[in-house]
Amino acid sequence: AIRLKYSKIIKVNRREGYPASRTSMDIPITQNIVAAISKVSDDEPLLIPTYGASLPVFHFTERNKQPLLIIPVANYDDNQHAPDENLRVGNLWFAIDLYASLFTMN
Fold it and tell me: What does the DSSP assignment read for 4-70?
């Protein structure tokens, strides 16, 4: 009866996955990383405390009790995971500067 009543209906079968994790934006390591990013960027960093992705980062944050931050460097239109995935050369140079700043931060 429900399928006849509604033309657009879906059924979601949930499977077991891994839990989400979050790292506080207020802890010292996060602030140090934001400072390192600010040193090499002309723009203020965009801080997103929750990021949608299917990465099993809970191994670090929950099991190992360590903070984890994801710092993307790809261009917004990189067609990630597509056959025409790309990275602009300017983003590559920025990433080199960024990681040099991160690896030399105090």
Answer: HH-SS----------------SSSHHHHHHHHHHHHH-SS-----SS------THIIIIIS------
- Report residue 14 as tokens: 């949930």
Q: How does pLDDT run across 17-69, given as a tens digit for each residue?
A: 777 788 888 999 999 999 999 999 988 888 887 766 677 788 888 888 888 88
| Residue environment code for 10-36, b if the CB has 16+ CB neighbours within 10 A, otherwise e | eeeeeeeeeeebebeeeeeebeebeeb
Give the distance, in angstroms, between the CA of residue 95 and the centroid of all CA atoms in the same chain: 15
What global pTM score does this model have?
Answer: 0.67
Cα distances (Å, whole numbers) of residue 21 to 30, 67, 76: 15, 9, 23
Q: Token pair for residue 38?
A: 């600010």
